[in-house]
């Protein structure tokens, strides 16, 4: 009896049902829960479609509430003595979206997406653990503070990816609406912004979610969010995006090629030019088929020239790939310019993740600007072809032993290296180099065939540039004559490294 | 919180970069047999750029190992890298390698954008039959 009286007050508190965490078979730590939530968000982004948009939008405010509650349970990360405001801003957006959803209109009442619900439930579970055991974590230690930073970043990353997934679903629903109504008497018009499929009610939701997504992204990259003062950035009309991207690409490619490029840089130039030329075909074909846009010459002749230029860019790209070691770094500015050129192009040519119909492409905002831009890019492509050919003529290039061995044999067999006949064919690369996966100088047939391929590239690119520029038909002819009479550049004194310094 | 040490993070990023490089070259092998307006050229370029951006995140003195380690061997045992399943497998493996990085470290923060791009590329690859 004395023992019972001694411990009674402790037992009462110990077994208070309101204080207990109801145990389950789930023994994941906070870190494991956050990683799982993050993985679920990424899986959602990989699988999302327009059919999911309504349920995802309904579930998004609840997800943010769970994430924000977890954020508040974790010790705040201070910057200059103040807590960072990012999650508060995102929660405010979620609260306003929740209010808008409750007032009716699309998407209306219905279920929440179970995948977002699962992520929210995981955040709730993590928050329970933090509130229960967080006080035991020694935040005075560096490792504990690192873990806290990691946890906060992981929560924000889950919010970032989930929000992006909801935006993608909304845009895909917009695309579905445009495509489904195109042939009807009331087609849904494309938005006059660079996010063409933010149509109807989708536009507002996409803009508001975009604010939250940017705020989350700003936290992750350490930037001050632009929305601190409540001013959401406006998505402006941007019909000139492709033109600017192609011009920036041309300028950067010239800069890189003029500054001792690596084989990887030249490979990227060739691959990007192949892609741009392919997009040129798509846009010009759409213009010729579905619009009244006047092209510089007969469409069939123009497309044939574009295709020929693209085919030779493709061939030269394959050769430079063999001269590129997988770990070689690129000029970072060249990467960015290529990425922007690709993104700007796909915005016009793609429908969700695949090529759109030519009718759909021709109806997109900024299409006329895009056609003018790709026509301007053709003579620029000819300039780049000249520079690539000049680089190829430089001695000292190297490449992967196995790939060059195969290439040498194929070039001799196909007659692309006239100085070397089949009778002279031999093992151009030593088996030891192939076995050791060494980087070796170009075998003679490969170097010869490379120069020949570059000559054909210049011819095709110049021809495409000439017939796209009928206002100055003599310009391309002068360019070609000049290229043939200029003396070759002096040879380099040492072997060119393939790793950029 | 389970996070990778920074050195291990760099190794994972290096492996992811090489996977993406190989996946891009595989896509281009197929693309080169198709007309220049084939969407495969765009997919290959996107994968290649993701790999190149990932390489650019690595410290200048990071020694990237050859793409022969056991992780790659396991991948190749599941699917021939030259097949559609192989390309998708490489993309998914690269995405998994970038999923548990210590993104709270400033030098690794840009990897968050890489993860997002990979998810978009995986959707694009699936839509093209990979």
Roughly what percent helix of chain B? 55-70%
Mean pLDDT of chain B: 83
| Low-confidence runs of at least 5 consecutive residues of chain A | 225-237, 471-501
- Gap from first CA to last CA of chain B: 35 Å
Order of helices and strands of chain B: HHHHH
What portion of residues of chain A is helical? Answer: 55-70%
Counting H and I runs of at least 4 residues, what is the number of helices of chain A? 17
Distance between the termini of chain A: 82 Å
Question: How large is the radius of gyration of chain A?
Answer: 30 Å
Total of helices of chain B:
5
**What is the multimeric organization of the chains shown?**
heterodimer
Q: Got a strand count of chain B? A: 0
Kindly name the structural category of chain B. Answer: mainly alpha
User: Strand portion of chain A, in percent?
Assistant: under 5%
Could you state the order of secondary-structure elements of chain A as H and E? HHHEEHHHHHHHHEEHHEHHEHH
